[in-house]
Amino acid sequence: xxxxxxxxxxxxxxxxxxxxxxxxxxxxxxxxxxxxxxxxxxxxxxxxxxxxxxxxxxxxxxxxxxxxxxxxxxxxxxxxxxxxxxxxxxxxxxxxxxxxxxxxxxxxxxxxxxxxxxxxxxxxxxxxxxxxxxxxxxxxxxxxxxxxxxxxx
Length: 153
Description:
The protein has 153 residues and is α/β, with parallel strands linked by helices. Helices cover 35% and strands 18% of the residues.
């Protein structure tokens, strides 16, 4: 049994088919949102945070969901509370580019003796981090941990 399509329907289908194909292809080719991780090392001597332009470039992309600033410096135990506070101020300007989309990640290792509980964020004489800066870093995605030197066997 042969099924015959009336001429007017066939003519209409020929006109509509390109639009249907375009609609199907546009939904099939739509990108999924993704996250961007920017690795950053304080020892690069390029400042306390990645360049603003680098973060802005990523947040301007349509399908970027989150931009994470990943601090990969394995050891920042020699930094003073003043240094961590200056870094905090610089990093805040990066988070402000897109407050709901730019976050921190990674572990910041602080001095094993003083940790992250010093009272004065401007102190330049001791190594460690102030309590208020420790809370800020943690609230913005970074983990704070005391440096534990490797044990000799």
